[in-house]
Amino acid sequence: MPVTPFHFGPGVLFAAAAPRRVSFLAFVAANCITDCESVFNILRGNFPIHRFLHTFVGATLVGILTIALFVFMRWLARMKPMPNWFEWQQLTLAPVIVGAFLGSYSHVVLDGIMHADMRPFAPWSDENPLLHLVSVSTLHWLCVFTAIAGGILWLRTRQSRPRSASPHS
Ligand SMILES: [Zn+2]
């Protein structure tokens, strides 16, 4: 994806469909960590820009890193008061794990469809069977539609359960 937020669309839908099982924050964090690689390579002029973190092996590491970051931040928050943005301190580990891996693996799939320099199955294969599975415009619209559908679903869930407030972030 040219812009990381496109990746968030499916995350909105996942989190809205299963708010207690999927952390949207962890989904977003995993996507941002993954794209640190491409931003770094663009800034350094290193090509290809999609490397280790954009493989399924790298995505596994990104998922673990996201979870470790959450555990560390939660530990830190117990020692020292920290801002509780989006109520992240109320999150439990299970939705963070699901959100982190959904975020990192879906990132590889979406970028794999779009970018010719992706090698999702490295180090075992340099092939990219995901490339152009659907057109780039279809892919972008899919991300937009999943975001809209997720937003509508989230609003409907919130309206039907006014006291339960927002789903887990
Ligand atoms: Zn990417």
Characterise this structure.
The protein has 169 residues and is mainly α. The chain has helices at 8-17, 24-44, 56-79, 93-114, 136-160. Helix 2 packs across helix 3 (56-79). The longest helix has 25 residues, at 136-160. Bound molecules: zinc ion.
Tell me briefly what this model is.
The chain has 169 residues and is mainly α. It is built from 5 helices and no strands.
What's the total number of strands? 0
| Element order: H for helix, E for strand | HHHHH
**Estimated helix fraction:** 55-70%
How many H/I helices? Answer: 5
Q: Radius of gyration over alpha carbons?
A: 17 Å
Q: Bound compounds, please?
A: zinc ion
Stretches with pLDDT under 50, minimum 5 residues: none
How is the topology of this model organized?
Elements: H1 8-17, H2 24-44, H3 56-79, H4 93-114, H5 136-160
Helix pairs in contact: 1-2, 1-4, 1-5, 2-3, 2-4, 3-4
Bound molecules: zinc ion (ZN).
